[in-house]
Write a structure and sequence with these properties.
The chain has eleven helices and 14 strands. It is α/β, with parallel strands linked by helices. Bound molecules: nicotinamide-adenine-dinucleotide (NAD). The site of nicotinamide-adenine-dinucleotide has 27 residues, from helix 1, helix 5, strand 5 and strand 7.
Length: 352
C-alpha cells in the first residue's frame, strides 16, 4: 500500500515508517519538524534496508518500500490533498500532535489548534481526495483517573488535561466523518511508548524530554544530575506510580495490523495498546541500573497533581480483533533497547 504518515519524523511515527518499509509499503512522511527530525526518516530507511538485507539472506523478506519526507503542516488541506492524489495514497496514519500534558494546561490554544485544528484540515483533505482509511494515534489520556484497572476501551472517558481532551475530541470527530463521509478509522490509544528500534540507530529524541525511561537513561549518561521520583506514598507496593510501558516496535506492529483490518473493510473503532503489566518508577529505575551496570541518582519529590497511582491497559480487544501480541514486553528488554540508542546518541539525532 501507499501510506501518508503524518508526523512520520517523530518518535513513534519513524518506527512505524521503518516497519511499513520493511513490509514493502511506500511511505510519504509529512512533518513540520516541530518536534520531529528529518534524520529519523533517514534512519528508518537505513534500518529497513539493513534488516531487509539480513532477511533476504535468509530468504524471508520482499523488497523494501520507498520513503520520502515532505516538510509541511498536517492542517494544510491543499497540501495534504495534493499529496494524497499525486502520490496515489491508500491510507493515512496520523501521529502528528503536540503532546506535553503540562504544556497543554498552560497553553490550551496551541493544543486545540495543532491537534484538533490540524485534524480537521487533514480529514477534509481525505474527503476531498477520496481516501477513506485512517489510523490515529490516540492516548490513554482520554480516560482520566481510572475507576477500574486494567483499563478497557469502554472505561469512562473523562480526560484531566487539555491534551487528553483534544485526543478525545478527535475520536468524536472521526465518528462524525465516518457517518457523513465514510472515512473509516482505527484509533490506537497508546499507554507509555518506550524503547527503541533494535539496531540502536533510531529512538526517542524529545526536547524537553518528559518520559521516564529516557530521563533515567539521560541521568545514567550524566546529562542531568538526578531523577525526581514524584510521590512515594501512592497505594502501590513500593509507593511510587505504576505505568504500562509498551515497546515502540510493538506499537508499530499494531499500526500495520490496524491498516490491514481497514483494508479488509473494518469499521471505525478504537483499541488500547499496552502490555498489561504496570511497572513502578522504582522498578524502572532498578531495571535501568541493572541494564547500565551502575547506580542512577534519584531524589524523592512531592506528588504531581493529576498523576493517577496506576495506569495499566487491558489490550484484550486488540489481541482478539487485530491479532496483536506485544512480543517485547519485559521491562529489561525495553530499557536495553532504549539504552542502545541513548548511549550511542546521547544528544539524539542532532549530534548523534
Ligand atoms: N510517546 C508516547 O508515549 C505517546 C503516548 C500516547 C499517545 N502518543 C501520541 O502518539 C503520537 C506520536 O507521539 P511521539 O511520542 O512520536 O511524538 P513526537 O513529538 O515525537 O512526534 C510527533 C510528530 O508530529 C510532528 N508534528 C506535530 N505537529 C505537526 C503538524 N501540525 N504538522 C505536521 N507535523 C506535525 C512533529 O514534528 C513530530 O515529528 C502523538 O500524537 C502523541 O500524542 C504518544
Amino acid at each position: 500500500m501507499r501510506v501518508l504518515a503524518v508526523g512520520g519524523a517523530g518518535y513513534v511515527g519513524s518506527h512505524v515508517v521503518r516497519r511499513l518499509l520493511e513490509e514493502g509499503h511506500d511511505v510519504v512522511a509529512l512533518d513540520n519538524l516541530s518536534t520531529g527530525h528529518a534524520e529519523a526518516v533517514e534512519a528508518a530507511k537505513r534500518a529497513a534496508g539493513a534488516r531487509a538485507k539480513v532477511g533476504q539472506a535468509a530468504d524471508a523478506h520482499a523488497a523494501v518500500g520507498h520513503a520520502e519526507l515532505v516538510v509541511g503542516d498536517a492542517g494544510d488541506r491543499a497540501l495534504v490533498c495534493d499529496l494524497l492524489t499525486s502520490r496515489d495514497i491508500d491510507a493515512v496514519m496520523h501521529f502528528a500532535a503536540a503532546s506535553l500534558v503540562g504544556e497543554s494546561m498552560r497553553d490550551p490554544s496551541k493544543y486545540w489548534r495543532n491537534n484538533v485544528g490540524c485534524a480537521i484540515g487533514l480529514l477534509d483533505a481525505m474527503v476531498d481526495a477520496g481516501v477513506d482509511m485512517l489510523v490515529f494515534s490516540s492516548s490513554a489520556a482520554v480516560y482520566g483517573e481510572p475507576v477500574e484497572t486494567p483499563i478497557r476501551e469502554d472505561h469512562p472517558k473523562e480526560p484531566r488535561s487539555t491534551y487528553g481532551m483534544t485526543k478525545l475530541a478527535i475520536e468524536h470527530m472521526l465518528a462524525g466523518y465516518r457517518h457523513a463521509h465514510g472515512v473509516r478509522s482505527i484509533s490506537l490509544r497508546y499507554f507509555n511508548a518506550a524503547g527503541a528500534g533494535d539496531l540502536g540507530t533510531m529512538g526517542e529524541a524529545h526536547n524537553p524530554e518528559t518520559h521516564l525511561i529516557p530521563i533515567v537513561l539521560h541521568t545514567a549518561l550524566k546529562l542531568q544530575e538526578e531523577i525526581q521520583v514524584f510521590g512515594t506514598d501512592y497505594p502501590t507496593p513500593d509507593g511510587t506510580c505504576m505505568r504500562d510501558y509498551i515497546h515502540v516496535d510493538d506499537l508499530a506492529d499494531a499500526h500495520l495490523l490496524a491498516m490491514g483490518e481497514l483494508a479488509r473493510g473494518a469499521d471505525t473503532t478504537a483499541y488500547n495498546l499496552g502490555n498489561g503489566s504496570g511497572f513502578s518508577v522504582l522498578e524502572v529505575l532498578a531495571a535501568a541500573e541493572r541494564v547500565v551496570g551502575r547506580g542512577i541518582p534519584a531524589r524523592h519529590a512531592e506528588r504531581r497533581s493529576g498523576d493517577p497511582a496506576v495506569l495499566v491497559a487491558s489490550s484484550d480487544r486488540a489481541s482478539q480483533e487485530l491479532g496483536w501480541v506485544p512480543c517485547r514486553a519485559s521491562i529489561a528488554d525495553i530499557i536495553s533497547s532504549a539504552w542502545k540508542w541513548h548511549s550511542a546518541h546521547p544528544h539524539g539525532y542532532a549530534n548523534g
